[in-house]
Design a protein that fits this description.
Structural class: mainly alpha
Organism: Phrynocephalus forsythii
Mean pLDDT: 86
Membrane topology: Multi-pass membrane protein
Pfam family, one: Proton_antipo_M
Helix content: over 70%
Radius of gyration: 18 Å
GO molecular function: NADH dehydrogenase (ubiquinone) activity; NADH dehydrogenase activity; ubiquinone binding
Number of strands: 0
InterPro entries: NADH_UbQ_OxRdtase, ND/Mrp_TM
Low-confidence stretches: none
Strand content: under 5%
Number of domains: 1
Length: 239
């Protein structure tokens, strides 16, 4: 239901859902796991969460709806968070919190960028948005920041959280590295594909009259990009 809720919600709802409500779910798992979840349930739950990372990534590779692609990407990242919180070690919990904060900023930024394109093209189809770098060159830089942060490019805060989670999962069970590493590779592929398809190429006929970014839109992007940059420089700010 989560990707469908993301896609059908207005932009403010999608941003709040990705940045706040999903993190409340992660917080609930962290608080409730030590007392209310038996060990017998942890193993299948982690197995489903890690397998879901790959499944959502493969789904993103075939998505043509930009907002649906970002929604499924959000689900894949939360699979990492869910599996880390269930292990309940200090390192895994720290990695889950870091990734939740980083994902909240990145996913909200991507949804906002997708809505800016939708307002100008009246479509969410990736193929109809190509060539936006020529029409909105400044917004392309924010697309690049969001896409590279989403794929956990070093030394972004997303990478710190994912490395911590992957390390704790590997210590818990070495088999999980196959799932997490494959999921990370697929995430890099569809994130770059999303950026290249929407920003590169020739403008379509319907996109000739696209107007440039407005001041309020640039302000929203700065308010997303600045915390990502500050947390990348000093991840201790989360604590």
């Amino acid at each position: 239901w989560l990707p469908k809720a993301h896609v059908e919600a207005p932009i403010a709802g999608s941003m709040v859902l990705a940045a706040v409500l999903l993190k409340l779910g992660g917080y609930g798992i962290i608080r409730m796991t030590p007392t209310n979840i038996s060990t017998a349930l942890i193993y299948p739950t982690i197995a489903m969460a890690t397998w879901g990372i790959i499944m959502t990534g493969l789904t993103c590779l075939r998505k043509t709806d930009l907002k649906a692609l970002i929604a499924y990407s959000s689900v894949g990242h939360m699979g990492l968070v869910a599996s880390a919180t269930l292990i309940q070690t200090p390192w895994s919990t720290s990695g889950a919190v870091i990734l939740m904060v980083a994902h909240g900023l990145t996913s909200s930024m991507l949804f906002c960028l997708a809505n800016m394109l939708y307002e100008r093209t009246s479509t969410r189809m990736l193929i109809a948005m190509r060539g936006m770098q020529k029409a909105m060159p400044l917004m392309t830089s924010y697309w690049l920041i969001a896409s590279l942060t989403n794929l956990a490019l070093p030394p972004t805060i997303n990478l710190i959280g994912e490395i911590q989670i992957m390390t704790t999962l590997f210590n818990w069970s070495p088999l999980t590295i196959m799932m997490t590493a494959t999921g990370a590779a697929i995430t890099a592929i569809y994130s770059l594909q999303m950026f290249m398809t929407s920003q590169q190429g020739h403008l379509t006929k319907d996109s000739k009259e696209v107007y440039p970014a407005q001041t309020r839109e640039l302000l929203i992007m700065i308010l997303h990009a600045l915390p990502i940059l500050l947390l990348t420089l000093d991840s201790e700010l989360i604590n």
